[in-house]
Every structure is written in structure tokens, then in C-alpha cells.
Design brief:
The protein is α/β, with parallel strands linked by helices and about 350 residues long. The protein contains 12 helices and 9 strands. The chain has one domain: 3-Layer(aba) Sandwich (Rossmann fold), CATH 3.40.50.720. Strand 1, helix 3 and strand 2 form a beta-alpha-beta unit. The chain is globular. The structure holds NADPH dihydro-nicotinamide-adenine-dinucleotide phosphate and ligand LVWHZ4SM.
Length: about 350
Amino acid sequence: MDPLNLVPYLPRAEWSLGPGDQGWLTMLGQVLKEYQTCTRRRSLLRARVMDFVTSTAILPLLLGCVGVCSLFKLLQWLRTRACVRNAVVVITGATSGLGRECARVFHAAGAKLVLCGRNAEALEELTRELAASRATKVQTHKPYTVTFDLTDPGAIVGAAAEILQCFGYVDVLINNAGISYRGTIVDTNLDVDRRVMETNYFGPVALTKALLPSMIRRRQGHVVAISSIQGKISVPFRSAYAASKHATQAFFDCLRAEVERHDIEVTVVSPGYIQTSLSLNAVTADGSKYGVMDETTAQGRSPSQVARDVLAAVGKKKKDVVLADVAPSLAVYLRTLAPRLFFSLMASRARKEWKPKRC
Ligand SMILES: NC(=O)C1=CN([C@@H]2O[C@H](COP(=O)(O)OP(=O)(O)OC[C@H]3O[C@@H](n4cnc5c(N)ncnc54)[C@H](OP(=O)(O)O)[C@@H]3O)[C@@H](O)[C@H]2O)C=CC1
Ligand SMILES: CCCCCCCCCCCCCCCC(=O)OCC(=O)COP(=O)(O)O
């Protein structure tokens, strides 16, 4: 440290210049001496503060607060798990990514699972994996599997009947399956917009409608929609995906209001990026597979953490949950509070990201 910078910290230094050339040395000596005294005083003060903290009630109080908070969190976690123990939970898109992790987390919490997907072999493999897992003290149940494509409305009616036959009723429906999209609006075939809407919106809507009457009869049930932060804000080159997720948010918000009188819960979960195969499986403007692991996806949250957050949201009967980092979460507020700024940010993002025929 430059000793001259210490001058403001040495209010009591007395300056006396020595005779001739000795003046500077004397001054420097004085400054260093005062600096040492100040440092000693500061460490003495620090030691006294620490003594006070440890010898009085502050430290036990702090430790007590941390302990109570941890205990509260643990109790909440146990209560959450208890909520889904023996509950019949249906998960769509269970063959991959978030759906697969939800299957693991809900299975470990003791739920009776009905795993849905298009790939029967992948569902069977997951069932075998879950049956073999022993890392839980809770009694677990062998899952059922139901294979169907969400873009096929006829198949959904049959699948709903099959789902109801598994355990006789459904407690929790997790509409998780979905696909993403990359493309410019001007280049995108309308069939691609339809396919994304069929998978992400009409499929979950049809399945929910098919299972709802039995929930209403029992006056019990919980419908979860895995939406996206893109159900709250729209980003360039994701038109079909963002539209399908905005529609999802709107539909399930309406549903929540309508079924409250039947004691049915509705939770919309809006995650930011998650490390899954979503970008690999995304469709492009001409309907072909995008097939690229985007950096944003690769650096996203871990699907097991998001699955635990989904379980917590179900246990706490949350109505709307955003599971995203600070920037996307703030962007949601910006879209409402300063729309012009938000739109210009998105336009500049579009200018930067635009690549002819590839987004
Ligand atoms: N990953 C992310 O960054 C984010 C994901 N989400 C949402 O999370 C959900 C799960 O996606 P994620 O796990 O990330 O992606 P994955 O691609 O890993 O998994 C998607 C799942 O949906 C299934 N699926 C796709 N199309 C259909 C269909 N037509 N009929 C039935 N099942 C279908 C897939 O089945 P199959 O194996 O047969 O293809 C697969 O099981 C989606 O709704 C997505 O929008 C939300 C925010 C961020
Ligand atoms: C006052 C300060 C405000 C700062 C706001 C800055 C604006 C930042 C823009 C952020 C855009 C975030 C986009 C997030 C997208 C996202 O998380 O999507 C989740 C998905 O569903 C992923 O799907 P994809 O197919 O796009 O990978």
C-alpha cells in the first residue's frame, strides 16, 4: 500500500519535518508507525467484536435461527413428500429429460406412477430402472405405462381410459411432454406451427379434459402444466413454441378458476433453460429436426433439481411457479412494466441472432 494514501486514516499524526534531507525519512517513519498503531487498533476492535459475539447471546441466537430455518425446511420437504405418498401421479413425456426426472423423484416419494410416452421400449426401461432402485425408505410402487402420441386426438381418449384403469383414479396429472422449435416466422411451414400447438397445447388440453370429470366426481385432483418462461415472454425465432406456451398458461389459468369450487388444484410451472434434449428434438421451419444441443440448454438447470421443484410445487399446492434465473425472471416484469424497452431488447436480440435459413 502507498503510505501517502494512509494520510486520511491518520487523523492524529503529528507532522514534524527533520532538518535537511532527513525530513522525508522522518515523515515516512512517523507515517508507518501510525499505520502500525491503526492496524493494531483495528485488529483489537475486531477481536473485541468477536469476543462480544461469542460470549453474549448473539452466536447461540444466530445458530438457533439457522437451526429453526433448517428444521422448518426439512419439515416442509417431508410434508411435501408425504403429500404424494401413495398418490396416483400421471406423467406425460416420461421417456426423457424433465419427465424422466419427475418419474424418479415422484417414485422415490412413494407415488403410484402412470408413465406416458410415445416410445414403449423407453417406458419399459424406465419402469425396470425404478423397480430396481432402492434408495428410499418410503414404500414404492411398480409404475404402469401407457403409450400414445399427444398429436393424435383419437389416441388421447383411449389413453385416458387406459390411465384410469391402472389405479381407478388420478390424483395428479403432470402435463410435461413438449417440443420446441427454431425458425423465422416468414420461412415456417404452417404445418410446423400446427404440430407444435398439437403437442404442447391441444394434446395436454385434450388429456386434461378427458381426466377432469373423474377428478370432479371425486372432488379431488391436481393438474400441473409444465409451461416455460416463454409462456410469459416471447423471444425471437421461437414463435410456435412461445405461442403454444402462452396458450398453455392462459388455458390452465382459466381452468384453475373454474375448478376451484370442485377442490381441484392447478399449477403452472414456468422453467427457464433445463439440461435436456429439448433443443436436440426441436423442429425447424421445414419440419426437420434441429438436432443441436444449444449452449443455453447445456448450461441450464439440472432436470433433477427442476423435478424436485415440481414435487415441492405440487406438495405446497402452488398456483404459478417460475423456476428461472434472474435475467429471465426480470424480463417477465420488464414485459409488463416497460414493454417498449422489452420489445427493443428482443428486436436487438433478433438482429444479432438472425442467420439466413438457420436460427
Ligand atoms: N429443456 C428446457 O430448457 C425447458 C423445457 N421446458 C418444458 O419441459 C417439458 C419437457 O421437455 P424436456 O424434458 O426439456 O425435453 P425432452 O425433449 O427431453 O423431452 C420431451 C418429452 O416429450 C415427449 N413428447 C414429445 N412429443 C410428443 C408427442 N407428440 N406425444 C407424446 N409425447 C411427446 C418426448 O417423448 P419422445 O421420447 O417420444 O420424443 C419426451 O419424453 C416440455 O414441455 C418443455 O417445453 C420448459 C422450459 C425449459
Ligand atoms: C431491468 C433488467 C431486466 C433485464 C432483462 C433483460 C432481458 C433478458 C432477456 C432474457 C430472455 C430470456 C429467454 C429465456 C428463455 C427460456 O428460458 O426459455 C425456456 C425454454 O423453454 C427453452 O426453450 P428453447 O427451445 O428456447 O431452448
